[in-house]
């Protein structure tokens, strides 16, 4: 994947998909910076990154807070010596069709992506081979009565990804998105539903031709590809990673 020596920032990298992405880059020799709100989770992933021999930077950052993002990005660039790859992974998981649900998705999923990209842009320009990967969702591609704000904002992220790709192409920066299906990991919402015996878990699992939910590493592998030289002619795309969930029964 040719990430040795590259400098990667993962926004929301302390657990689940974000953690798998950070560790994936570290295994390939990249220096990695991560942020999240929880100090304990950040320290754990920092230790995991360091154990892989990676230069690792971890700092708390509330991704709903514009000032904290504006401070974290240049600090991460200073710690890594620059930024070659930005991964916008964090989500507020707004599900309820009310002010709180919409605010959660808009402030974190949408505006953190906008703000982090804007803050990282000067460093990505200096890279010469900069890449942004935004995390979308298959929820962007179909209507949902269960999580209207989440799906609508993820659809906006897909659209913004294409706009970014057009805006930044002349600066030598590619921008793509990854749209995961239902992903299960320790401490995540799908694991909780499975342990509780929620009918929703079995309903979703039955829709996936592979007969199981996805794993964070299966999403991370696609993120690493899109950020790599192997995807040098890929930009403005949103790649679905769902085990066939969208085409299931």
TrEMBL record:
It comes from the Bacteria. Coiled coil: none annotated. Gene3D superfamilies: NAD(P)-binding Rossmann-like Domain. PANTHER family: 3-OXOACYL-[ACYL-CARRIER-PROTEIN] REDUCTASE, CHLOROPLASTIC (PTHR42760:SF40), SHORT-CHAIN DEHYDROGENASES/REDUCTASES FAMILY MEMBER (PTHR42760). Belongs to the short-chain dehydrogenases/reductases (SDR) family. This is SDR family oxidoreductase.
């Amino acid at each position: 994947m040719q990430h040795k020596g590259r400098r990667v920032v993962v926004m929301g990298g302390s657990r689940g998909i974000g953690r798998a992405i950070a560790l994936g880059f570290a295994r390939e020799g990249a220096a990695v910076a991560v942020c999240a709100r929880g100090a304990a989770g950040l320290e754990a992933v920092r230790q995991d990154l360091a154990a892989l021999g990676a230069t690792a930077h971890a700092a708390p950052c509330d991704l709903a807070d514009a000032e904290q993002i504006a401070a974290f990005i240049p600090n991460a660039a200073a710690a890594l010596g620059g930024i070659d790859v930005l991964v916008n992974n964090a989500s507020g998981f707004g599900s309820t069709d009310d002010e709180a649900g919409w605010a959660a998705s808009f402030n974190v999923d949408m505006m953190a992506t906008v703000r982090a990209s804007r803050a990282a842009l000067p460093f990505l320009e200096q890279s010469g081979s900069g890449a942004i990967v935004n995390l979308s969702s298959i929820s962007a591609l179909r209507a949902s009565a269960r999580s209207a704000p989440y799906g609508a904002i993820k659809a906006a992220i897909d659209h913004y990804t294409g706009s970014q790709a057009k805006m930044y192409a002349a600066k030598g920066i590619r921008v793509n998105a990854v749209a995961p299906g239902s992903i299960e990991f320790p401490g995540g919402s799908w694991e909780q539903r499975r342990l509780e015996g929620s009918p929703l878990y079995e309903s979703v699992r039955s829709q996936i031709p592979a007969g199981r939910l996805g794993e964070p590493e299966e999403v991370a592998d696609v993120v690493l590809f899109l950020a790599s030289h192997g995807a040098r002619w890929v930009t403005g795309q949103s790649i679905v990673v769902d085990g066939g969930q969208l085409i299931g029964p």
